[in-house]
Amino acid sequence: MNCVPIGFVSSPFKTREDAPKQGRHTDKLSIITLEPAYQEAAEGLFIGDDLFIFCWFDRSDRTVLKSRRPGEEQNPPRGIFSNRSPNRPNPIALTLVKLVDIEGRILTVKGLEALDQTPVVDIKPYSEGIDTPRNG
């Protein structure tokens, strides 16, 4: 398996304590600088688009298999696949952001909880018809 960064995040969040638990809890802006080889892949993105950003949380603990959800510290730890902890065997983060500006290979987004210099591994557009849970 070969997964390479397509870009890196420039973020106001320098430490885990600085970052919100989820991207939707911040209006701060972050910049994704695409590697030159991937600039062409950004064609067709428009200001106002909702995008899923897939990051590799490279500073996460990959040995954690159980943790507690925030606010549930009194409960026993649960399997990591049942919560959104950044600590996981493969620390792939998925965040829905708003594209607020795009200039060449520089994307400015709102709502990204990634730390400064976090690798970005993919970007996909949000689609209400596909990404909304089914009823029933």
Structure, explained:
The chain is built from 1 helix and 8 strands. Strands 1-2-7-6-3-8 form a 6-stranded antiparallel β-barrel. Strand 6 (92-103) and strand 7 form a beta hairpin. The longest helix is centred in the C-terminal third of the chain and has 4 residues, at 128-131. The protein is mostly beta strands. The termini are far apart. The mean pLDDT is 92.
Write a brief structural summary.
This protein is 3% helix and 33% strand.
Which descriptors apply to this entry?
136 residues, mainly beta, globular
Q: Provide the structure class.
A: mainly beta
Average pLDDT score:
92
Strand order of the largest sheet: 1-2-7-6-3-8
Number of strands: 8
Q: If helices are DSSP runs of H or I spanning 4 or more residues, what is the number of helices? A: 1
Quaternary arrangement of the chains shown? single chain
What summary fits the major beta sheet?
6 strands, antiparallel, barrel
**Cα Rg:** 16 Å
Distance from N terminus to C terminus (CA atoms, Å) equals 35 Å
Describe the secondary-structure layout.
Layout: E1 7-10, E2 29-34, E3 50-56, E4 66-67, E5 78-79, E6 92-103, E7 106-110, E8 119-125, H1 128-131
Antiparallel strand pairs: 1-2, 1-8, 2-7, 3-6, 3-8, 4-5, 6-7
